[in-house]
Amino acid sequence: MKINGNFDKLVPNYLFADVARKTNEFIAANPDKKVIRLGIGDVTLPLAPVVVDAMQRGCEDLRDQKTFKGYPEYEGYDFVRNKISDYYQSFGVKIDADEIFISDGAKSDCGNIGDIFSQDNTVLIPDPVYPVYVDANIMAGRNIIYAPAGEDDNFLPMPDKNVKADIIYLCSPNNPTGAAYNFGQLKEWVEYALENDAVILYDAAYEAFIRDELPRSIYCIDGARECAIELCSLSKTAGFTGVRCGYTVVPKELVRGGKKLHDMWYRRQATKFNGVSWAVQCAAAAVFTPEGQRQCRKNLDYYHENAMLIAKTLDELGIYYTGGKNSPYIWMKCPFNMSSWEFFDYLLSNAAVVGTPGEGFGSCGKGYFRLTSFNSHEKTAEAAERMKDILEFRLNVNS
Ligand SMILES: *Cc1c(COP(=O)(O)O)cnc(C)c1O
Predict the structure, then answer these.
(1) Distance 147 CA to ligand 1 centre (A)
(2) Model-level pTM?
(3) 3-state DSSP: the chain helix, strand, coil percent, rounded to 5?
């Protein structure tokens, strides 16, 4: 018996453990200081009332012999898939209901989708980005190359014609940078994928945060149906991080090696996944009703106000950042040329504000820092005020 030796190649990531340890040490040493957490990568507002009502009705169905449900369909119930198809239509994208696979979240699908691809593929992953893509592909033993991002491209890396990749992960709006591709930029990625016979795995977990005229889906781009799979989630858009529901789109035109990836993904799910519970799918369908959209939008607006407050503060301080407008994340350059961890310590000890050091999301994150809008208005405003107090003086002296 041999274990999967690829696990030895995983780089230990103590980032969130280190953040928690340093924060707890600070609280123990400074019991009088009120720590504000702007490092939270999880929603903080409760579910929309219509969503909870639908979930409750779903539970009641299970109490009654006549409405009881056993195993769901692997790919999700039609009434949910139809609603998601209509949702795509609402921003001008035509996706058939039977191209949509309901899942227990985008994180699982980001990794599981690898089952339908050979281990021999080279995987291109932006840096910095959500660490799941890298670790899932290390576990699978695939060769990984990086698309480095930085201030030159405002953290939106573009394809390099000299680099040959088979699988490309893109995340827009991005976690952690909050940066979002425009139509022209995504078109370049689609063209690159088509030229290289590659497949784009497009993580659209934050599409509902988009406010500018930016693509909400990779399928806004011509040709994407022949080269892209889209991963979506109700986690950030509807507060489902604890409930668990997402969906993945595999268009029927997507063919590689003479096989429809749609059929391969169906077979994979039918083999290793037994579907999402009835009550959760009832709740998911409620998200896509007009009232569900209105109520979820209220929460998104709340986070948006927080993001804009942080953005305004950084504008006033003259600090470079991306994100905020179309994302719950703000990605700022650490002032005074501090490293990510130096700035973490500086912000914690002087302002009692916690954020996330950028280097936890890839080596190009060194010297940057992620703040999130997942907190209350009051605490976000207080944190912004404290940051201004500690940075204004020093930035003015420097300039
Ligand atoms: C939070 C997040 C997800 C959502 O994952 P779920 O499993 O649906 O909760 C997916 N991708 C990115 C980039 C995320 O930040």
Answers:
(1) 20
(2) 0.97
(3) 50, 15, 35
